[in-house]
Amino acid sequence: MTSLSRRAFATLATASLLASCGSPTTSRGTTARSPSTPPPTPRTPPNPARPPGRSVPVGLRIPAIEVDTPLMRLGLAPDGSVEVPPIAADDLAGWYRHSPTPGQVGPSVILGHVTVGAWGDGVFRHLARLRRGERIEARLENGTTAVFTVDEVRTVAKAAFPSDAVYGNVDRPELRLITCGGPRTGDEYRDNVIVFAALSSDSPDHDRGER
User: Fold this and answer.
1) pTM for this structure?
2) Among residues 3, 16, 87, 151, which one has the fewest Cβ atoms lying within 10 Å of its Cβ?
3) Distance of CA 161 to the CA centre of its chain
């Protein structure tokens, strides 16, 4: 990951994401951790999944919380912060294009709103309800699907966002889903909800390659 991307990721913790989420979301069942707490040791499945070839994600499905959304591509805003999906009636989640594609080694990052102003619920309204072991499917442009299993869900204060745990290098394909959560003051939420997931052995066995 480039130093530019790391700086942009860190900016996400304090600035651009979800300032206009609209209303609070539940944090039941999540685990808040301080920045000093080390991230959990990755679990290695009995039959590790073989990463699919690199391909841009075009959709996301999370059966446990009834999410099935196209994905837009997000980059950097003019101020250097990470772009977020627009506040709109047809709310979509977005993949940060400076992160790995889902299924490639490293943390692939997908952002979404918890609410979208006057239009009500956002695509990640119930993200905090996910539990360890639940399934996440990232549909790729090449027609394949990268399947992930939730390892952990955390609710953390934005002021103590664990940037290294979320965006730091890892030695396997992982996924991060990020939205806002916790109490709301004005148009802002105090916390972020972060889902950590790893590529599942259910993922199709594809040759690695570049598109």
Assistant:
1) 0.75
2) 3
3) 14
